[in-house]
Design brief:
Helix content: 25-40%
Strand order of the largest sheet: 1-10-9-6-7
CATH architecture: 4-Layer Sandwich
Number of domains: 1
Oligomer: single chain
CATH class: Alpha Beta
Strand content: 25-35%
Order of helices and strands: EEEHHEEEEHHEEHHHE
Shape: globular
CATH topology: Phosphatase 2c, domain 1
Structural class: alpha+beta
Length: 244
């Protein structure tokens, strides 16, 4: 069994919370969706996303297929006025398999792996500033404070996309590792180094998550904040260390 913790908060400047998240322990599924579109709109899209991914996974679909289907359902819902036109969502989802995690994402919600005191970002933002980083125009540190860092290039429900780009990665799982899923309300306020330091503390999972939230709020809390932290089960294999 996994030990995990979760929390969501509207932040200090938003009047309501457009984030949604889902935990399906039986399916080994964790999802964070960050809705966009304003009052009575973004939270509708993010709720559709988490519910649809859960349904599709329970029916045997892989994460990439489930995320792609959620995109089409959000478009249909907006067209039928189940919410509002223009609503959308980012998403990051993780599915546990026997010896690895499957990660799928759209937009700038992120997954990180904490392992042996180090934090590694598993996802790659679908964003304007990430494109500039990839092109060598700006550094990663400059991207973290860029005024257009929240401009994303892919989103579930975006009707101007020729084809939705779903990022995927498969990550081996070892004892002692932790998987962090979050909306950008955390990563816009708290640097990776600070996240790694908090995850390295001796607190339990829920204390770590609470500490991350408090750090994000103390740094401004300018957006909704959603965090899921999952620890590898005790049955996970030990990492083999080379003696070379």
């Amino acid at each position: 069994m996994h030990r995990y913790a979760h929390i969501t908060h509207p932040g200090l400047t938003r009047q309501h919370n457009e984030d949604n998240y889902l935990i399906n322990e039986d399916a080994g599924l964790w999802v964070v969706a960050d809705g966009m579109g304003g009052h009575a709109c973004g939270e509708v899209a993010s709720q559709i996303v988490v519910d649809l991914i859960d349904d599709k996974v329970n029916q045997g679909a892989g994460l990439k297929e489930a995320v792609a289907t959620a995109h089409h359902i959000v478009l249909i819902a907006a067209d039928q006025r189940m919410g509002l036109p223009g609503m959308g969502s980012t998403v990051v989802a993780a599915r546990f398999h026997a010896d690895h995690y499957e990660i799928a994402w759209v937009g700038d919600s992120r997954a990180y792996l904490w392992d042996q005191g180090k934090l590694k970002q598993l996802t790659r933002d679908h964003s304007f500033v990430q494109q500039m980083v990839d092109a060598g125009t700006i550094s990663k540190r400059e991207a973290a404070v860029h005024p257009h860092r929240n401009v994303i290039t892919q989103a579930i429900g975006a009707d101007d996309l020729d084809q939705l780009e779903v990022g995927t990665v498969h990550v081996p799982m070892y004892k002692g590792q932790k998987l962090l899923l979050c909306s950008d309300g955390l990563t816009d306020e708290v640097r990776d180094e600070a996240i790694a330091s908090i995850l390295a503390s001796t607190e339990n999972e829920q204390d770590k998550v609470n500490h991350l939230l408090q750090r994000a709020l103390a740094s401004g809390g300018s957006d909704n904040i959603t965090i899921i932290l999952v620890s590898a089960p005790d049955s996970a294999p030990e990492r083999l260390v080379s003696l070379a």
